[in-house]
Design goal:
The structure is a homodimer.
Chain A: E1 4-5, H1 16-30, H2 42-49, H3 53-65, E2 69-72, E3 78-81, H4 86-98, H5 104-122, H6 128-139, H7 148-168, H8 172-187, H9 200-219, H10 222-242, E4 250-251
Antiparallel strand pairs in A: 2-3
The first copy, chain A, binds a DNA duplex (21 and 21 nucleotides) through α3.
DNA sequence: ATCTATTTGTACGTATGTATT
DNA sequence: AAATACATACGTACAAATAGA
């Protein structure tokens, strides 16, 4: 597991702060520093790199923006290696898609195949605590919403169900991608056409799916879990389409 | 399409540079600035925010690190809104997974379902130019490798095939995720057990798959494309497993 | 509760670098 | 080639935060 940095490229002139930031990154990897380990203080870095204070500070801000370090003032303070948080990663990736005009369909094309896969892989592997959390979450929307505001709240809550599952994924990649997509969906503003009334039947189906899914997960039945999630995704997708939902570009905050 | 920033939170004390960076981000969104548009110069930002030059500069480095702006010197220079590049997004996301110990199996769990989906969605939609590029790429590894070095080169080249497809995806999310995974695979170092000789048969299968896939794509046959890609992924996965490949944590460079 | 030492955070003046016209 | 309009870099001084005595 010898980590290293891929340095190569046409390597167009990089500004000093960026160079320093890269050098520090490399140094951290070389030293096998782990999350929580302390980096040299400002003054030491100034000497080590023969750079001015401002330049060093700009470099640190770069690393901080990438979520790789955290900095504290005071005695015993300084900069510390920090594991990039999932929230930070989602925010940074969100910046990329800000410019990309994703459609709801784009998201569902992935959810439709990935969420059933996740559900199957979690069957029989969740603690009773998590299963309870899922059930409590479902309880939050056990009754159909009466107004459009409540409906939106329920919609977000029902998405939370999927976030909980994503957080339990053994496959970090699968978990992250699903979490990210659910995040995008939670963030979007819903416009419903006036002539498209809330579809209680579809809503009820979704609710029942989630309950059945928890049972399959508890029973350790991966095939059932996959099948139910598959149906659930189809239902959710139908609901979204009916409601004429529009994506809205925004930056994800941390 | 009214973009906006979700500002809320416990909002723990943020450093000034971070606050300024966020404020500038919001301002850019409010002003509906597009990629390429110019931001106010340093001196103007200093006045606008009543901050020192250093603070403003640190803020700009943050935005730059996130890939949201580019800065040029000289007359007519300054900072400009910049669409986050795919390469930058991959690098930033890579930092997140640096701490996560992904396995090859994790990646293939996603490739196995996503790549066939991509292949199907591209059937009949690729220009002759792209189809040619794919064929030329395949030609780079039409003969079995003779030594382990050449084999690695061919391995990377055959992954390049998938990158080309990912870049053509109509679904930006699907394209990005696949591109990112292929990037991870290209970056990893391959250790082969001595008693595991190169499997020419499997390699040949992979090669044939790719040729058949190009034909299906040209013919506009989505079902065939999906089926072939599905087989191809199984083959690739078998090859990787046989070769006892190990992931190595590293930072992706830009 | 206060002081003190440590370490980052902010300010500002000046000089240098760089690309356009 | 020179002037111009920008960012880039440096150094110092001082302010703020925090932990510990």
């Amino acid at each position: 597991m010898l980590p290293a940095t891929t340095r190569s490229k046409a390597e167009a002139k990089l500004s000093r702060p960026v160079q320093v930031a890269e050098a520090i990154k490399d140094w951290v990897v070389e030293q096998r520093l782990q999350a929580g380990d302390r980096l040299p203080g400002e003054t030491e870095l100034i000497e080590r790199f023969s750079m001015s204070k401002g330049t060093i500070r700009e470099a640190m801000r770069i690393l901080e923006a990438q979520g790789l370090i955290k900095t504290r003032t005071g005695p015993g303070g300084g900069s510390f290696v920090h594991e990039v948080s999932r929230q930070r990663a989602k925010a940074l990736l969100g910046n990329y898609f800000y410019f990309k005009d994703l459609t709801i369909g784009d998201i569902y094309q992935l959810r439709l195949t990935l969420e059933p896969e996740l559900a199957a892989s979690l069957a029989g592997k969740l603690s009773e605590e998590i299963l309870r959390a899922l059930e409590e979450n479902i309880a939050e929307y056990s009754e159909p919403a009466t107004d459009i505001d409540e409906e939106r709240t329920q919609h977000v809550a029902s998405l939370r169900f999927h976030t909980i599952l994503a957080e339990q994924a053994e496959n970090p990649l699968l978990g992250f991608v699903i979490d990210f997509m659910v995040n995008l969906l939670s963030d979007l503003t819903v416009y419903r056409r006036l002539y498209s009334p809330p579809n209680v039947e579809l809503w009820q189906q979704g609710h029942d799916h989630q309950q059945a899914l928890v049972k399959a997960l508890r029973d350790g039945d991966p095939d059932a879990a996959r099948a139910i999630m598959s149906d659930h995704m189809e239902t959710a997708w139908k609901l979204m389409r009916r409601q004429e939902v529009k994506m809205q570009n925004r930056f994800i905050s941390e």
